[in-house]
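Q: what sequence does this backbone want?
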């Protein structure tokens, strides 16, 4: 068997086309604010991509490029200002932050209605309770990709390798909502292969090149590779996933790396920014209705 390739580009385009059509129903163009501290090369390039893509679909975008030495207080003050600015619809603080700034209080300071990364504890709670909110971009992007390719999770066994707050755990919440039977495996899971072989849908979000090999995959499984690993090539570094390329001989469908889940993450961020503007619009209208005697 040679797996059908699930490319992220077309799925991301569909997500963006939908976000673009919703723009016309809004009274103001959504404005995304991305805050970056320092000059970490990966963060610089991710932020540049987010800014470029936001502008491409017709959003306003501002990048706040602050110095590495910016204090936590100064960062919290900027977040507070953006929280109160009704023209700032989405706020994203690029992670990781420098060591002297604690991530949790910074995330918790963002207005949950503007938290386009979906990391605020209130959005995490909404995700697990099935309430409306803003979902984390990578897992929500993965679900959008499955939907785009007509792959249903309902009634199927899903195994996620990786239990991080940004991928593994929220992906489990979304798959549960989609009526899958979900298992999360991690670095302390004994006999990982025995667990992954049960999967009709297998998700790898670990950060180890080629961890998932063909013997670990059930014949005909759908395999989604979230991992991004930089490996040394003879001439230059290249990006590979957590799933060994030979898995394509066993799986029925599989995402490539690069060009798989990656484009969905940015597309979902922009969809979340439009969603955030919609939520704020309804919130203001509800407040106005309550204030009207
Ligand atoms: P993380 O380091 O926070 O979590 C990794 C998880 O893998 C942990 O839960 C750990 O328990 C588990 N793990 C580690 N070694 C293992 C092993 N040998 N067997 C089983 N489980 C093991 O990482 P993360 O932030 O969740 O990211 C995971 C990968 O996904 C990374 O490669 C990252 O670059 C990539 N990623 C990609 C996107 C995207 O847009 N495509 C977005 C976020 C993360």
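A:
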């Amino acid at each position: 068997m040679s797996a059908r390739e699930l490319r992220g580009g077309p799925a991301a385009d569909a997500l963006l086309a939908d976000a673009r059509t919703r723009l016309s129903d809004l009274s103001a163009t959504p404005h995304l604010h991305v805050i970056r501290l320092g000059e970490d090369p990966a963060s610089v390039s991710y932020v540049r991509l987010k800014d470029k893509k936001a502008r491409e679909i017709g959003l306003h975008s501002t990048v706040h490029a602050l110095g590495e030495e910016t204090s936590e207080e100064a960062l919290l003050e900027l977040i507070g200002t953006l929280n109160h600015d009704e023209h700032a619809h989405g706020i994203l603080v690029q992670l990781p932050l420098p060591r002297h700034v604690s991530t949790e209080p910074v995330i918790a300071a963002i207005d949950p209605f503007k938290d386009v990364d979906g990391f605020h504890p209130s959005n995490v709670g909404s995700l697990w309770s099935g309430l409306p909110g803003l979902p984390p971009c990578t897992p929500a992007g993965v679900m959008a990709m499955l939907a785009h390719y007509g792959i249903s999770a309902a009634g199927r066994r899903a195994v996620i390798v990786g239990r991080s707050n940004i991928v593994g755990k929220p992906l489990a919440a979304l798959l549960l909502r989609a009526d899958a039977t979900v298992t999360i495996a991690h670095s302390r899971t004994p006999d990982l292969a025995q667990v992954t072989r049960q999967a009709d849908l297998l998700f790898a979000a670990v950060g180890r090149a080629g961890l998932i090999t063909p013997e670990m995959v059930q014949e005909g499984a759908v395999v989604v590779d979230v991992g991004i690993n930089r490996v040394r090539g003879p001439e230059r570094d290249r990006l590979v996933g957590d799933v060994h390329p030979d898995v394509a001989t066993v799986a029925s469908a599989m995402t490539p790396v690069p060009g798989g889940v990656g484009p969905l993450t940015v597309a979902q961020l922009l969809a979340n920014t439009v969603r955030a503007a919609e939520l704020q619009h309804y919130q203001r209208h509800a407040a106005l209705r309550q204030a009207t005697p």
